[in-house]
Amino acid sequence: MQQINLLLASLPDGILLGFVYGVAAMGLTLIWGVMNVINLSHGPIISLGMFGTYIIFIKLGVNPYLGLFIVAPIGLLLGILIYTVAVHRVINAPHLSSLLATFSVNMIIIGLGTAAFTTSPYNVDFNMGSVTLGSTTLLGTRLIAALASVIATGSLYLFLYRTRPGKYIRAVANNRSAAELMGIPSSRILALSFGLGTMLAAISGALIATFFPFSILSGGGYELKSFVIGVLGGLGNPIGALVGGLALGVLEAIVPAFLETSWVPVIEFGLFILVLLVRPNGLFGAKQ
Amino acid sequence: MKRTLFNLFALLVVFSLALTACGGGAAPATEAPVVEAPAATDAPAAATEAPVAAPEEVTITVGFTASQTGAQEVSSKRQVNGFNLWMNQVNEAGGLTLSDGTVVKFAAQSYDDESTKERVQELYTRLITEDNADFLISPYSSGLTAAAAVIAEQNGKLMITTGAADDDTYKQGYTGVFQLYTPGSLYLTSTVDMLKTLDPAAKIAIVNESDKFSTAVVGGLKPYAEAAGFEIVLEEAYASDTADFGPIINKIVDSGATVVLGGGHYPDGSTFARQLYERKVGIQFIGILVAPPDSKFSELGDAALGVTGPSQWEGKATHTEEEANGLGIEWFGPSGEEFSAAFEAAYTDKPTYHAAGGYTAGLLLEKAIRDADSVDSEAVKAALDATNIFTFYGGIKFDTSAEAHGLQVGHSMVVIQWQKNEAGELVREVVWPADVATKAPIFPITAP
Q1: A269/A263 Cα distance (integer angstroms)
Q2: Would the CATH topology of B34-182+317-397 be identical to that of B186-311+414-436?
Q3: Is B338 exposed, middle or buried (0-12, 13-18, 19+ CB in 10 A)?
Q4: Chain A neighbours among B 280-309 (CB < 8 Å)?
Q5: Is ipTM > 0.85 here?
Q6: Which pTM value belongs to this model?
Q7: Contacts of B185 (CB under 8 A, 6+ apart)
Q8: Cβ of residue B349 closer than 8 Å to a chain A Cβ
Q9: Contact B274 A227 (CB under 8 A)
Q10: What is the pLDDT of chain B when averaged over all its residues?
Q11: Is residue A287 part of a domain?
Q12: Which residues of B244-275 are buried (b: 16+ CB within 10 A; e: fewer)?
């Protein structure tokens, strides 16, 4: 009974957090789904999103949610820049080349971030109040972050399925050569896809910064979660990533109710291995 | 095929990143050694008389790694700054003069360990075998120091550790590793002593990071609190990268705890404190490790108010020569005010306990060389074994038993609490021990 009470108290938090995990994972899976590139600069870009919120709120005094409209386009442009400089030339090379290219970008961002911000944690002292429902307390910042995540996911879905550039992206993802034969400018579409992936990473970082302290190294943990979600939820499918994120958030809420909290990563990554072995296409049957 | 490839890469990356995380964080690699050049400072720690005839001058190489990148960068930098300040002061004062007229000066040889144990072991081996370091100072953090201590001991080099509180390193049978910090197992005992005067009936929840240092702290805290008559209603460990403390806080509420003790390092400690505040769960007293003594903790705003933490040294309650005289223990080195002034002049930053620890590591080496009247390793080791001194940083004395050789037994900690001053600004006050307290503790921090 005690465990059930704890579970009921923790579950809403896990779900809210899961939405944000989902947005982070969407960025990673979108890039892989479109161009077969594992973006190892994903974590530091999440961290840059966090610092975006910090600068916008603490230094400029702008509401962090309004700040998303600044962080998102910067994330998009940063992604296009990274693609153009580091990824485009190795896009057709063996996978190891793009892996090393994005890993280099990862190290460059961490190095520059360490020089600019040190590895010391930062905090955005921003409070949106809380709502108490029975034994659970829902923080306003998490509620809004979850809402923003749903809006971001819906917007991405609409973009991919209801706009011409979105259709181009799906066409390039399905068959790049055929898409080029149809006159689709694949290089520009790949750059746009990479930009969208980094934009989602930056948005998730900006939202996380409203409720957790962070450092330039913090994104690494969310990158790890994104890989797990990628396996759980499927590739190139934003809804699958969101569901995978929710699954991970719920798992993080369930485990502490029955076991010591330090077991959470053990269960998480144990599940990761299990899914790879049993359902390599992901729990939610991602589309190929 | 595409899916399988992703899965393979994902698996590889997850494991490699997880391993990196276990090592304390990834960072760019650099191998260039840093040889510290003396900088202009005043107020030498212990100026020596100039020799009459041209003396023989020897330069002692002190080797250490610094975390210039990675998770330990900030604390490590402060520690190294403290050590370099000591070294510069001694060198600029003309060095140490031994009874045979030999003048001893110091040079630091250091590398970036990237906050990883693997690099620490590689670089300490290099410091000993290629750079011929005469003495070693530890890196920052218990985990990195444990990795370095093995290398030092295997190669018969003396190492003074600072920024490394975990007890286990000193219970491995080592004979050449000497700890400056109060051991981890005693970190929260002062807090328990204070709590006994505030609320002897408090119900304690112990919530700690599951790393080496924090586990050692809790290992000492639990029996001490129980012996003091407190009821421990919850014991919970969490992984180092935990960011969401919601489920743990729900457990704390469910346990009926009125006091939370534990934490780990800055990132998790500050996150935990913030979430305890945001959820307004009615905890009356919070004592957490490492994070509260850091000046950045005030960035939490009202979430910092009332939070306490143990500190190895505080400028506001620095130890004095009078205190040493009262205890009948030899005083050595500058006063706390002199140290703080010199540090601020050199680095335009107020010294933290990390900096004080770095400085005192050098001070201790100086004292041991003076007492040994030699730079011979065995003689200096014997002097360290016999050390029983008081400095601005506090008492320094080592366990010399075979079971825990080198463990610090002479140093005690103070407890700080974030309070608001008359202007409404958050300030760090010393609240325990009562005889050095600058303010009375705020208790309870929320209405019961």
Answers
A1: 10
A2: yes
A3: middle
A4: 280-281, 296, 299-301, 303
A5: no
A6: 0.81
A7: B167, B216, B217, B219, B220, B221
A8: no
A9: no
A10: 88
A11: no
A12: bbbbbbbbbbbbebbbbbbbbbbbbbbbbbbb
